[in-house]
Amino acid sequence: MTGNDIVVLGRLADPYGIQGWLWLYPFGDDPLAWAEMPVWWIAREGEPWRECRLKSLKAHGNGVVVLLDGVADRTAAESMKGVLVGAPREALPTTEKNEFYWTDLIGLDVINTADERIGKVVGLIETGANSVLRVMGDDKVERLLPFVSAVVLAVEKEAGQIRVEWGSDW
Predict the structure, then answer these.
(1) In contact, 73 and 67? CB cutoff 8 Å
(2) For 59, phi and psi rounded to 5 degrees?
(3) Domains of the chain, with CATH numbers?
(4) Fewest beta carbons within 10 Å, which of 5, 24, 77, 136?
(5) What's the pLDDT tens digit per position in 58-87?
């Protein structure tokens, strides 16, 4: 399975307890539904994806914790911190209108209402309140644009661009 076939769904975070559990930092809005996928794909950024069996997933407090096959204790869990979690696109539901997987936004050009190119989406950040587009300009300056309707006017995937209300000098 290549990186292009995998949609990144989240990232493993800190260990939870001493029996191999990890906090899951999801990039989506329904991580409990991931329990339906017995096989996850995991990788560190820039490394090849590999299969990993999910042993358990549960809500805990305001978050989600997971137990993966082969992660038996806290030491093993500590070594998994930062690992990306993904799934093959065909295993995921299709998105509704104005819903997007983050991976579909990465690489799109960002154009403002004055038809000025702000840059290219290189990643996203989840802040809790909303997602934030990481946009790298041609000047190698990274700009952070909130992914909210007041800023993002249209996502035109077929045209390869996102239209925004944002000044080129902001």
Answers:
(1) no
(2) -75, 140
(3) 3-91 (2.40.30.60), 102-164 (2.30.30.240)
(4) 5
(5) 999 888 999 999 999 999 999 999 999 999
